[in-house]
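Write out the 3D structure for:
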Amino acid sequence: MKTRLGIFGGAFNPPHFGHLRPALEAMQQLALEAVFFLPSGSHPFKGADQLAAVPHRVAMTRLAIQGQSGFELCELDANRTETTYTVDTLQLLADRFPLGELIFLMGSDLLAEMHLWKRWQDIIEIAHICPLLRPGHAATALDTPVMAHLNRFRVAHPTELDRQRLGHFGFCLLPVTAMGIRSTQIRQLLQRGETIRYLTPDAVVDYIQHHTLYGNHD
């Protein structure tokens, strides 16, 4: 029996409910055995000045997903010292789980920058691609080479993402509950000394406060 694994990478700077709820809905809609949360290490599109240190982001991600069955922390990218790229990470995971079927989960807002990614066309050769439709980002309206390429593999419903049946990996847009929470917003609130309760799990709030991350807060 094949294992269906969701791969959800990100800076998680910090992680919040806008990551967790869509990941849970994706796990249910796609019948995933697990969702791997992969905090990034050295990020090609984010300067080090914007990111909390890797050990902090790993620790916050671990706290954010604790207690949720099927959510797992993967430190593959975090433990690598060189800049990490999605296509390379997915290939490493495919090699580690040769009997698995990988589904790459991404925010739909990232479709607009995907053409800048290393070997982005090759990702669909390694895993299904399933953008999570976030509020304010109408992915279907994007007229880009990325969408033109991915639409060749598009299926109408997430249950159709089956490599054996399709003969290839597929692409499917996955609507999720609209939660307009962003890590940038959380960092800005903290810098102004405002509360971030109910935007991220209490354990993450407490961790940020204990380690005085992201600026001025009590």
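The helical segments are 17-29, 54-65, 86-96, 145-150, 163-166, 183-191, 202-211.
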